[in-house]
Specification:
The protein has a 5-stranded antiparallel beta sheet. A 4-stranded antiparallel beta sheet has the order 6-7-8-9. α3 crosses α4. The protein is an alpha+beta fold. The protein is built from 14 helices and 13 strands.
Length: about 400
Amino acid sequence: MAKIPDEIIKLIEATAKIQEVVGDFVQLRKTGVRYTGICPFHDDRHDGNFIVYPKDNCYRCFTCDAKGGAINFLMNNPHIKMSFLEAVRYLGKKYNIETDNIPFDYTPPPLPPPPPPRPTLVLPREVVSKRTGNLRDDNLARWIANDIRWGEDQRQRIGQVLHDYCVGHVTIRQRDRHHDFTVFWQIDSEGRPRTAHYMKYKPNGKRIHKEEDSYNTDWFHSLLERSKATKYYDPERQEARQCLFGEHLLKRYPDAPVCLVESEKTALIAAIAYGNNKHHLWMACCGSSNITRERLRPLIADERRIILYPDRDGIPAWKAKADNIHYKGMAVDATPVTQWWRPCDGPKADLADVVVRSINQPDSQQLADMMSNNPNLRKLVKTIDLELNEEKETR
């Protein structure tokens, strides 16, 4: 059987536009000269890890490292799984290139070596300094300081924790509206600022979700790219690679085990509640898709003990991720969202929800919740109360 002529393959590869091919299967969002979306090659939940480059006619995911061109995308995408012939004929039909009458006996050539990696985006430290502190008008900071019934030692730690984790506040004007964001800086283990996660919070400390406000979150590198501010970030020459929130504290506490949670807010609440970073250093992965060996490399290189604290609805997924990383110093602790959990915490509760509720809720209410979940405890409390009443009547 004759081969598909090389010129046909080259014509298809040159004609197929990667953003159009990927866009047939993935919802893409244009950010400057690139496109971003949810990666179809792994269980991705955060737009921004998967990037499509029209200029280079390729795609890449910086979490699972999937990469390639249009034919590669159609063959390796687990939701499509086309053969080489099917991918060639699909693209031929899409771009009006005759392939149906060509007999198939073709072995694709080996993939060319990947291009050299672009340098990682590293921001000047003064960029962080100008955007930290200034938390007087920040909803999350005010809720932490004013609405949680901290003990005296915990209350004294609030300012230091917000300072140590480089939490800030910005107001962005867009479309005749002012948008207030809490700023969580991501600074790597070498002290190099990478980017910042911007998030909106309500006065009660709850996140504002996309269905409530379409502009509910952002990233500092995305803002720079949209504003064409290439003084710090040129997407043609640099890659915006995230790191763990709180990673810069590793050198300050070289022997501390790392307690990893999902959200930055949870890391702050836990750091204030428990203190003593020498015995437990709290960090946030900012999305379960970031629990990868690559993202945890600074911790693994230090041979740190890593304890994962999943949200209540994420326990199986986090255990699976820990198993896939194959690091003997890692464990998953779901105790806060199982044994300490109460129905009022909600089905998606995380460690912060449980801790804040246990601090704010009166003891009598906690006891009532425990009794509602444990009939034996309810019987015991009623028996004790009866005996006490009988003793009072005797006296």
